[in-house]
Structures are given as structure tokens and as C-alpha cells.
Amino acid sequence: MNNAFLSTSEFAEKYIELLQPLENSVVRTYREIPSLHDHDVLRVYEALLKYVKAKLTNYPLPQPKLEGTPLSLYLEQLSFIETQANSYSFKEIQECLKLLEKSVKLWNREFGSRGYFNYISRFSNGISLLGL
Question: Among 77, 76, 52, 47, which residue's Cα sits nearest to residue 63?
Fold first, then answer.
């Protein structure tokens, strides 16, 4: 599926059923574990991207270098991604994770160590990526 010509908001709308649950699990984890920071979530998205890349290239699946809360979040999101593999290609999942990674970097750079959380936690009925 070629998404090269979609705007960020069009992309987010097209993949809302994949993006929104991933961000909602991040918000839920942030609220449960106040010590979680954007860099922890960034590491989770990076580990998920490595996993998806391995699936796309038939490489051995990597072991995430995460522990504690980031590992729990990774496993939760990995489980969700696996359930979505029947509805979305791993290439589409990869594109979504890249957009989430970009969002973490943007809001963290703009508003500090919990900028991404502070931004996405404001959205309950929509996807935060529409603000990119």
C-alpha cells in the first residue's frame, strides 16, 4: 500500500484503528507509572520497529533490550501488533510505528521529558497525530 501521497492527518485517519490503541496503551502506562518518560516510550517504539523489520526481512527476531515498565509496555504493544497482522501488513505497521516515533521525538523536543505524554493524554476521542 503506497501512503507516500497521504498527509500526516490522512495517514492517521486511515490507520486510526492501529495508532489509537498503541497511544492509548502509552497513556494508560504513563498514568499508572508516573516515573515513565518519553525516552522510555521511544525505546519501546524503537524495539517494536526492530521486531517489525525482522519480520519484513525474515531475520531472527531480536530480543528487546528493555526491562521493567518499558518491557511490559513493549510486550503489550507487541501482542496488539501481532493481533493486527491479519488486518495490516507489516510494512503498514512499520509506517505507523515510524510516525509514532516521530511524534515522541517532536513533543519531547518541544516540551521536555514528558512532552509526548502531556500532548497525547489530552486526546480521548481522537488520535493525537493530527497535530503533527
Answer: 47
| b/e map 26-65, b = 16+ CB within 10 Å | bbebbeeeeebbbebbbbbbbbbbbbbeebeeeeeeeebe
User: Based on C-alpha coordinates, what's the Rg of the chain?
Assistant: 14
pLDDT digit string (tens) for the chain, length 132 residues: 567 778 888 999 999 999 999 999 999 999 999 999 999 999 999 999 999 999 999 999 989 999 999 999 999 999 999 999 999 999 999 999 999 999 999 999 999 999 999 999 887 554 565 455
Cell numbers that stand for 89 in this block: 501488513
Kindly report whether the global pTM for this prediction surpasses the value 0.70.
yes
What is the grid cell recorded at 40?
Answer: 522510555
C-beta of residue 47 within 8 angstroms of C-beta of residue 66: yes
Contacts of 24 (CB under 8 A, 6+ apart): none
